[in-house]
Amino acid sequence: MQSPVGSHEIEMLAQFADELADVTDAMAMTYFRKPLDVETKDDLSPVTQADRAIETAMRERITQRFPAHGVFGEEHENARLDAAHVWVLDPIDGTKSFVSGMPTFGTLIACLANGAPDIGIISIPPMAERWVGVRGQQSTLNGQPCRTSNRSQLAEATLYCTTPDIFDAEGRKKFETLSAQVGMRRFGGDCYAYGLLASGHVDLVFEMDLHPYDYMALVPVIEGAGGVITDWDGKALGLHSDGRVIAAANRALHAEALVAMS
Q1: Secretion signal: which residues (predicted)?
Q2: ∠ CA(58), CA(205), CA(151), 5° rounding?
Q3: Contact 20, 61 (CB under 8 A)
Q4: Residue 92 CA to chain centroid, in angstroms?
Q5: Which of 169, 209, 213, 228 could form a disulfide with 90 if both were Cys (CB 3.0 to 4.6 A apart)?
Q6: What gap in Å lies between CA 50 and CA 236, rounded to an integer?
Q7: Which domains does the chain have, with CATH numbers?
Q8: Residue-by-residue pLDDT tens, the chain, 262 positions
Q9: Which residues are annotated as a binding site?
Q10: How would you list the strands of the sheet with 85-93, edge to edge?
Q11: Rounded to two decimals, what is the model's pTM?
């Protein structure tokens, strides 16, 4: 769905999102590889004081600058989700990596206009790498254009999944069917794998049980780099998607993957 947001407004929002990522990167690194209090949420995922402090800071800056905008985040109560603009935030995507010292965690920031993700940021503070996607523009890595690979056949593709633990029985069957046909499969990476896809190093990412704050920021980045990201049925991702996500380097590879797992 194409957003009607004007070019001046979207550039202003993109600049704000980039400035917001500067703040979150600095905060995340003050906590990284330091002693942390780790709690287990109701969904059995971990959360730390870093997750909550970073999201609080993000929300405060958004509310101060754009009081009419909505916010959908992982760690705090959501607000004004019927607003024309909604920010979708994951302060630390990959908390398990974060608490175990792995430098592949990131912060995800998306700005939706009338339900469509116009702006997406994948920021990986330990690597000092930041992918930015803006609707209708070429995606960038640290300010330089990035592009997905031209590998269009499963047999030559590299497939990533954060962990096979995310799959139920049906999902695991589909993953095994798909991964049996690719050139290589690897595990780990969290949101970093999607950034690597946008830069042409990874060709497929296949996951389930994700939430909007896990995937909305990925959409403008991957699409702006030439890739495709949808649910497992090939439908566009939105706030009400079921959390089953497949990202591919190009339309031909995406189509082949959908057929392979059907």
Answers
A1: none
A2: 125
A3: yes
A4: 11
A5: 213
A6: 31
A7: 7-145 (3.30.540.10), 154-261 (3.40.190.80)
A8: 344 456 889 999 999 999 999 999 999 999 999 988 888 876 667 788 999 999 999 999 999 999 999 999 988 778 788 899 999 999 999 999 999 999 999 999 999 999 999 999 999 999 999 999 999 999 999 999 999 999 999 999 999 999 999 999 999 999 999 999 999 999 999 999 999 999 999 999 999 999 999 999 999 999 999 999 999 999 999 999 999 999 999 999 999 999 999 8
A9: 74, 90, 92-93, 214
A10: 70-73, 85-93, 106-113, 116-124, 129-134, 140-141, 144-145
A11: 0.93
- CA separation for the pair 212, 238 (Å, rounded): 7
Residue ranges in 122-233 assigned as alpha helix (H) = 169-179, 192-198, 212-215, 218-224
Percent helix, strand, coil in the chain (nearest 5)?
35, 25, 40
- If you write DSSP's letter for every residue of 157-181 in order, what string do you get? -EEEES-GGG--HHHHHHHHHHHTT
> Is 212:120 a contact under the CB 8 Å cutoff?
no
